[in-house]
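We emphasize that the prediction below concerns an isolated chain of 660 residues; any contacts that depend on oligomerization or on bound cofactors are therefore not represented. The input was used exactly as deposited, without trimming of termini.
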Amino acid sequence: MSLLRVGCLLLLLTLLGQSLGASPSFSVDYDNDCFLKDGEKFRYISGSIHYNRIPRVYWKDRLLKMYMAGLNAIQTYIPWNYHEQHQGQYNFTGDRDVAHFLKLAQDIGLLVILRPGPYICAEWEMGGLPAWLLNKKDIVLRSSDPDYIAAVDTWMGKLLPMIKPYLYQNGGPIISVQVENEYGSYFACDYNYLRHLSTLFRSHLGDEVVLFTTDGAGVGYLKCGALQGLYATVDFGPGSNITAAFQAQRHAEPRGPLVNSEFYAGWLDNWGSGHSVVSSSSVAKALNGILALGANVNIYMFIGGTNFGYWNGANSPYRPQPTSYDYDAPLTEAGDLTEKYFAIREVIGMYQKIPEGPIPPSTPKYAYGAVSMKKLQTVTDALEILSFSGPVKSVYPQSFNDLKQIFGFVLYRTTLPVNCSKPTPLSSPLNGVHDRAYVSVDGVAVGILERFKVLTINVTGKAGSQVDILVENMGRINYGSGINDFKGLVTNLTLGQDPLTGWTMYSLSIDEVVSQGLLPVQNPTLTNPPQPAALSPPTFYGGSFIIPDGIPDLPQDTYISLPKWRKGQIWINGFNLGRYWPTRGPQVTLFVPANLLSTAAPNNVTVLELEGAPCSSGVCTVEFTSTPILNATVHPDGNLLVKKGCDENEPRYCPQVLLH
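Result of the prediction step, given as a token string:
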């Protein structure tokens, strides 16, 4: 009887423990080569989504579509520069409310794999690092440089305590956290830096959380990217040998779960190259091969989204990415369902149960039609309005960082020191135009200097003629050794053989001016100086349109195209939509989410055209359409560039091995 009582008591205690619920746990099971979730074998099938590339109002829609595809997790980055654009000033509100994003994911039933950096790459401005780090000109980023470490410690001291309540063991959705990102591809190979980050993350997040690293599927990448105490994972796409890729992971992790942290369902674009496309069949076949091995996988990207404003990154040698980050992903830039979505869903359904119920449909798109645009002012005419901080004078030109400017544009002004009656070369002999400069002499546009492409133009004019050079930051390099990417005129310009001196510089607060509606319409009695047919000075244009309030379900998403416009920036109701460059492509239309539009008031469209608007013959238009165009590449030499995203000088930047 006593043994029976003991047995009953043990059974009662077991049942009581189950009813109370054990503490949630997530860990690596090295003995059985798997993850353990609450003590049970677990495999994640995840998809990448970047909250910073999607309007907050659409987070739930995108996450639901991912859940209904059969994913049980999502992966996201936290871009440091998106939350601390200016040192010591933090923003976690609105579209930056990462806590709300994590709660939404958990409410929908998705676990989270978090990649908080500090460096993220991601084809994002400076790889997520804030540009103010470059205020120390000789800083060694992603290393044990004391100034860099101090900034990282301060940032992580702010971020990681905010994240800790959302760890799985604390009742949240986060099952693992990445430390740094593809460090094995960086030149520094600083193990002390990785050790410092590992200790820093542990001190804020505790010993239970699974910390991991991500590197290319090659032993060479894991040499500097892997560190004891951080679980090493690899990345590879549909074109790779799956067995060989996981053998590379096994070099660093002889036991434990197989993990592909970035399985490429698509690929990135650059201005001037063809739109990258990866076939649904190749993605489905490779995904099936990965899942058949029992491996864990994250699909990069499951939805790409948009580089609104100035947030796009760039590859080296300098090639910036466009505004669209569609990525040929299973969900389009606008969150629409694709053939690839259903192909992936079918493969996932072979390995685990797909949730029942309807899939949220693609959002409707509306073609609002043509909007007439009128000239407002040239940048030079509006200079007093645009430059809040006023002029800065120096002998030689100063960089954006010197001028406390992060994004956008700076106007550099000087004069011709001698008569140039014959065409005289204005040059950037050290390739110091970062990134594109629009040159005018006495208000007449004379040419464009462009980093790595056009280092010299010819100018004419009299001694004392005013030279205006509007320099555009096209996005900082996000990958490789060039991420310390200073902007502006970072070296002297020469006229003939002599350096130009005596500069006046104007930091331009264009976004603030546009959002506050401070740009006046040009006085029609004023006449413009005659312009060469090929080029006009950078000029603002404005227009507006009304959305009928009697039509149900409006406003809806739309796309804006600029037929016969060349290159510039667009704002909708003061929101910086991004860059357009249809003359170089491949992107022609820009995505306009419905939350930017209003049925209660006119919708304002502002365009800064940098090269030449099609307005010389009268009224010109932009057009709102229901169909995107992302694949119409027109290169200046008339030829398509078919080498999709692959860079001879950065061999890691090729579809078989690229990391993000």
